[in-house]
């Protein structure tokens, strides 16, 4: 089976996606799959080549030579139940030493982070061409990508989430003072300001007064046109549970992220000591989290419930904010493509990354087969009556 790994994209989380993509490519090769690396640049240009399948390509100057891998196109006519990329002109593509005129993808493995990938957009492309793919579907990806929609649905489902308000750029431009007053009145200080549809802690800031809040909102609106302002949780423990599977998903152990600043920052996640989100900065991670057996099982149970209620499939990570003093916890957000598959947490839970990837592929195939059982057509005589009086009122169209 040829597996296409899609990474990069037009997102502030572009570099994070490259790391995730290259890890997945490496592990798929170890499992014996033919891998087709598909890279989307920050400018929105597509590149397909086996040479893109190593992190060294992106760290060793390979990007300067990438143009020779970009003269490809998606063959719409041939892409039925698969994706077919072809080379423009007569130059042939190479896969594992065999010269071919095309790259064929039987199953897609998205490794995008943030906009234009994690938000359901690339999943829509796979659906159009009826290609099985790993991870959550269009709907669950789109909803969970939006922190505001996630919190609104949590409220609807009776799932605890921290108090919040939200607004978009147009509202901010019209009634800035009113929104600042509302935040102070409804939430009190301190608060966190977050772009609604961005991850990796980019654009997030803590505000302790109106001046800091206004500045934080202005920054957040540079990354997204919708902003979430959320009541800060005191005595904070940042805990995470990963969930994997289809109809009967299972939860990982609980992880606590340890950080010294006001939030689990981009630097904490990816840069300092090799990055906690990458599983390297082990001194910043406590697995299993020291929150007691009863609360641990409650968080694991609720994580699976969230996974199901939001229609997730494959893998997702549920982040919680825990007030250690009161014991109250809140769902913060849901990540449908959780970094490098959170392989370090699954390893601590008893599953190596190869087993995780096998499980994700299996779940994708099962879901696709079930979808194939659905009826996609409906016999009707509607077109025979297209010129009827009701459908052709005043002869405005023919």
From TrEMBL:
It comes from the Bacteria. InterPro entries: ATP-grasp, ATP_grasp_subdomain_1, D-Ala_lig_Van_CS, D_ala_D_ala, Dala_Dala_lig_C, Dala_Dala_lig_N, PreATP-grasp_dom_sf. Pathway: Glycan biosynthesis; Cell wall biogenesis; peptidoglycan biosynthesis. It catalyses: 2 D-alanine + ATP = D-alanyl-D-alanine + ADP + phosphate + H(+). Mg(2+) 1 binds at residues 319, 333. GO terms for biological process: cell wall organization; peptidoglycan biosynthetic process; regulation of cell shape. Keywords: ATP-binding, Cell shape, Cell wall biogenesis/degradation, Cytoplasm, Ligase, Magnesium, Manganese, Metal-binding, Nucleotide-binding, Peptidoglycan synthesis. Residues 151-362 form the ATP-grasp domain. It holds the Pfam family Dala_Dala_lig_C. It is an enzyme of class 6 (ligase). It is found in: Cytoplasm. Its EC number is 6.3.2.4. Its cofactor is Mg(2+); Mn(2+). GO terms for molecular function: ATP binding; D-alanine-D-alanine ligase activity; metal ion binding. Mg(2+) 2 binds at residues 333, 335. PANTHER family: D-ALANINE--D-ALANINE LIGASE, D-ALANINE--D-ALANINE LIGASE A. Cell wall formation. Belongs to the D-alanine--D-alanine ligase family. This is D-alanine--D-alanine ligase. The lineage of its organism: Bacteria, Candidatus Liptoniibacteriota. The gene is ddl.
């Amino acid at each position: 089976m040829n597996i296409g790994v899609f990474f990069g994209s037009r997102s502030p989380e572009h570099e994070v996606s490259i790391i995730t993509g290259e890890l997945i490519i490496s592990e798929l090769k170890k499992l014996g799959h033919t891998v087709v690396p598909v890279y989307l640049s920050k400018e929105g240009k597509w590149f397909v080549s086996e040479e893109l399948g190593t992190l060294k390509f992106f760290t060793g100057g390979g990007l300067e030579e990438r143009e020779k891998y970009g003269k490809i196109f998606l063959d719409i006519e041939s892409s039925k139940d698969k994706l077919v990329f072809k080379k423009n002109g007569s130059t042939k593509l190479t896969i594992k030493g065999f010269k071919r005129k095309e790259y064929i993808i039987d199953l897609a493995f998205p490794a995008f982070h943030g906009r234009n990938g994690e938000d359901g957009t690339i999943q829509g492309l796979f659906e159009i061409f009826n290609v099985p793919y790993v991870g959550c579907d269009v709907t669950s990806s789109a909803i969970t990508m939006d922190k505001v929609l996630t919190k609104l649905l949590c409220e609807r489902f009776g799932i605890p989430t921290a108090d919040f308000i939200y607004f978009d750029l147009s509202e901010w431009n019209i009634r800035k003072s009113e929104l600042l007053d509302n935040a102070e009145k409804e939430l009190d200080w301190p608060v966190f300001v977050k772009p609604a549809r961005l991850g990796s802690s980019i654009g997030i800031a803590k505000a302790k007064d109106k001046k800091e809040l206004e500045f934080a909102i202005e920054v957040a609106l540079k990354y997204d046109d919708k902003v979430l302002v959320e009541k800060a949780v005191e005595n904070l423990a940042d805990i995470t549970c990963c969930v994997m599977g289809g109809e009967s998903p299972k939860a990982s152990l609980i992880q606590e992220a340890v950080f010294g600043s006001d939030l689990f920052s981009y630097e904490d996640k990816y840069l300092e000591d090799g990055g906690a989100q990458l599983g390297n900065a082990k001194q910043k991670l406590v697995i299993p989290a020291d929150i007691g057996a009863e609360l641990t099982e409650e968080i694991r149970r609720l994580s699976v419930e969230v996974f199901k209620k939001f229609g997730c499939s494959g893998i997702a990570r549920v982040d919680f904010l825990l007030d250690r003093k009161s014991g109250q916890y809140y769902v913060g957000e849901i990540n449908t493509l959780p970094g490098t598959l959170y392989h370090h947490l699954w390893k601590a839970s008893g599953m190596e990354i190869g087993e995780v990837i096998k499980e994700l592929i299996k779940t994708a195939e099962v879901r696709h087969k079930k979808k194939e059982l659905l009826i996609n057509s409906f016999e009707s005589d509607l077109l025979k009556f297209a010129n009827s009086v009701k459908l052709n009122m005043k002869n405005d169209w023919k």
